[in-house]
Amino acid sequence: MGHKVVVFDISVVRTLWETRVKKHKAWQKKEAERLEKSALEKIKEEWDFVAECRRKGVPQAQYCKNGFVDTNTRLLDKIERNSVARQRSRVKDRDKRSNPFVFELSGAQWKELPDSLKEQTHLKEWHIHSTRIQTIPAYIKLFQAMKILDLPKNQITCLPAEIGRLKNLKELNVSFNHLRSIPPELGDCENLERLDCSGNLDLMELPFELSNLKQVTFVDISANKFSSVPICVLRMCRLQWLDISNNNLSDLPQDIDRLEELQSLLLYKNKLTYLPQAMLNLKKLTLLVVSGDDLVELPTALCDASTPLKFISLMDNPIDKTQCQDMDETIESEQDRQHFDKEFMKAYIEDLREREAVPSYTTKVSFSLQL
């Protein structure tokens, strides 16, 4: 059965989720303050300090005065200076103990990749997130066995042209970085199957050379500044999932039906006023999500009950600003807001998608979220 779902209160539902997140963070802060004042926390701090001193061979006389542990001694500064070095060592040891072909790195203290990484050319996967790393070195071309480059939520400003030398690369995730362009050499990675460039905010186009990526089934370029569907995307003949939501689209190309394998198309938070008739030729399309505020024309057959398509139109009614007046405390930056919004919409749409029976119109949608 085909379904048309018109949601009139998306802003209200989103605000409800934001409120829950805010309450949860407030609880976490309160709990942290309680532990800080707790005697147990003080005892734990002293035990950790003593253990650290013993591990480093610091004489007891230097940190224990008249039977009391002095945790404010300058020895703490010495220990703190070595904390990054210890973490580097732990990362290296963890990688050796776990999968020897997988490299993992996270944390704001990282501004560049460790020097030892250059020697580990046998690696097949990089998982690097939530760091302050801005560049990916050119020596990445040495990693010929690389299959997965998972690099979300860093501060990467550009990708090296040498990335095109990774002939076995299957997944590239550079979401929520600071990219303004994608190197055309990426089109040489002909085995690529998944491409995620979402949340870079200022990305406006993809190079035509990406038309060579005939194995790609998943593309996410949401939360950027695309004014049209990239030509190269229309030539990805095996594409099944396309998320180009939260961009600057005002229309769709008339040859959108070139994407014969497309199953899910997310277009919400754009300025579309109509959907082309060519949409009816996407025979495998089962999920279509748009923002209905500006939409005035669409093929009526899209809502035909005889089709398997679930058509979701989100009507973003304005809400009272007083409901969101404290939002700056929860969302620290535009990129954080976009990431929060994307996670919300992902959960929200998945909830609607999984329902077997959906009313023609709905003004209230309930779903559960675990924080």
From TrEMBL:
Keywords: Leucine-rich repeat, Repeat. It comes from Mesocricetus auratus. The keyword Repeat applies. PROSITE patterns: LRR (PS51450). PANTHER family: LEUCINE-RICH REPEAT-CONTAINING PROTEIN 2, PTHR48051. This is Leucine-rich repeat-containing protein 2 isoform X2. It comes from the Eukaryota. InterPro entries: Leu-rich_rpt (IPR001611), Leu-rich_rpt_4 (IPR025875), Leu-rich_rpt_typical-subtyp (IPR003591), LRR_dom_sf (IPR032675), LRR_domain-containing (IPR050216).
